């Protein structure tokens, strides 16, 4: 996996997420301002290495803010999907998608940045912007909520709104995930949940690409399989076939 140094902006590749100390970001990709990619960041770093410039001012505002926030919290390394995955390499992209649940699980902390939520109201309130955030509607953010032990929610101004623990009642109501699952109150907190119930958590979530509807659920079911963009709905059929082979749970037929 590639990690970004929060102080130098160095991108460094590590063989495994295990035994690493890093923070990880959960967010919703935005069209404007455009997200900065892995190759764009690598290009900036290469140019600055020659010129002696400081690369930080050339990074996107989101990347700069992520680094500052993580550094303040004591994290030397940071993972952000926009700039830590080489999207041009199908092999690297497939490895990242198959490893994503583990990467979020192994992180010291996950910071969920909600670009559409202010910090001037109680996030637990019934009509709060926190409850209405688009973050709760996206397919990929489901595993980003479940996998990490520690999730810190941040407002659009990067102020702390609360944690997965402190906001558990609101998160449970919005996501449809039982509080005891969010809080991992049982040893089999995820594996002990039926296939149908796990599938129901994603029922109203959306992904930009149809294949990601399946790929974003792989980690939640402990599944690894090749990613083939262009296969369309066939991806979800392959996921169901893999689940049937791995998990002896007939509730999938009720889904």
Radius of gyration based on Cα positions: 18 Å
Ranges with pLDDT <50 over ≥5 residues?
none
Beta-strand percentage range = 5-15%
- Global shape: globular
Biggest sheet character: 7 strands, mixed
What's the end-to-end separation, in Å? 34 Å
Biggest sheet strand line-up = 2-1-4-3-5-6-7
Order of helices and strands: EEEHHEHHEHHEEHHHHH
Class based on secondary structure composition and strand pairing: alpha/beta
Q: Would you mind describing this structure in some detail?
A:
The chain is of the alpha/beta class and 255 residues long. The chain is built from 11 helices and 7 strands. The chain has helices at 38-51, 61-72, 81-84, 90-106, 129-132, 140-146, 168-175, 179-182, 195-201, 212-215, 234-246, and strands at residues 2-5, 11-13, 23-26, 77-79, 109-113, 151-154, 160-163. Strands 2-1-4-3-5-6-7 form a 7-stranded mixed sheet, sandwiched between helices. Strand 6 (151-154) and strand 7 (160-163) form a beta hairpin. The longest helix has 17 residues, at 90-106. It is globular. The relative contact order is 0.12.
